[in-house]
Predict the structure.
Amino acid sequence: MRPMVKPALRRAWRERQTVQFGVTPAHAVLVGPVDTATGSFLELLDGTRDLPVLREQARAMGLPDGQPDALVERLTAAGLLDDPGAAAEAAEALREAEALDRLRPELASLSVVHREPGAAARRLAARRAVRVQVRGAGRVGAAVAALLSAAGVGRVDVLDGGCVQEWDVAPGGPPARSVGERRDAAARRLVRRSAPGRTGQRQAAEPPLSLVIVAPRDGLAAYAPDPAAAGSWIGTGTPHLYAGVIEATGLVGPLVLPGGTACAGCLALERAGGDPGWPRMLAQWRSGRRAVTVPACDLGLATTVAGLTAAHALSFLDGELPASTGARWEVSMPLLDWRAERLTPHRDCSCGAAGRTEGERVAGTGPPHDTMVG
Ligand SMILES: [Zn+2]
């Protein structure tokens, strides 16, 4: 092991004997007590020295025997150490694909979030084997697909119909020169162009779908998702995440874990139960006669929703349960205050999520991050 203090977290002396790693409460960690010699020793943990060398240099600095090992152990437990050697293979795979430099901010972010040494590089490399389907190639869907591709997801399929319209064009989405092209073809090119490093090397076997993202151009289909359309994902246990913009309101979620958290069917039953007029209005909204051609989906909101959707998707693909699991986040122009609505599985829904507890963790505050070591 060649321990390295994670470079992604800023370091500062909080007081004479306490070092704080990181700025924000979500990921900051305090380490103390740290005397001057130990503080100097911390500078040596830069990934270039293995433990025998570190012990030798610590002895020369006057640190007692055993202290270097104890310190490395404590810092590892606090999630502050990375080990470039432990993830060498994963990093090499990214380097070979000429993707590593583009993905360094992703790597740094993962190193803050995942505590074990080497975890960041391994998770980033694992994204290359992941397959995601994005349904919808408007301002939100196309940008989500481009972001996932740029963040290292190996395979992003985009489905949509029709041709790119002037109002689909967005920074991060379809470019102006795509206007008039088929939406799916334009989105596929956008995905390819966004991918870091070399692309085009397809795996021999198609990987199973890890996630479906439902980001329809008509936000109604995300706000009031059709249970029938989700039937096959519920049947196959495919996780799916809804996102969109409808009438100047953006929404991210729910992320549905079939049989574990509330699904489109649960949501429909819940709404119909609480508002007898809802099913009748929904039928009118869905009918072609009342459809809206140009959505009220301004760029700031669409881009925000796309970015947050990609972040929730990546968090899930990297092994976490983000706050959209069984919940929906909404934000409306012009005040833009985010609010979350927890969605309860409905006992009459055939998805079977009612009574289960999967995904419950997101209701709490998550694991404690601010750890005092010492
Ligand atoms: Zn359900």
Summary: Residues 262-263, 265-266, 345-346, 349, 351, 353 surround zinc ion (CB under 6 Å). Residues 128-363 form a domain with the Rossmann fold fold (CATH 3.40.50.720). Residues 360-374 have pLDDT under 50 and may be disordered.
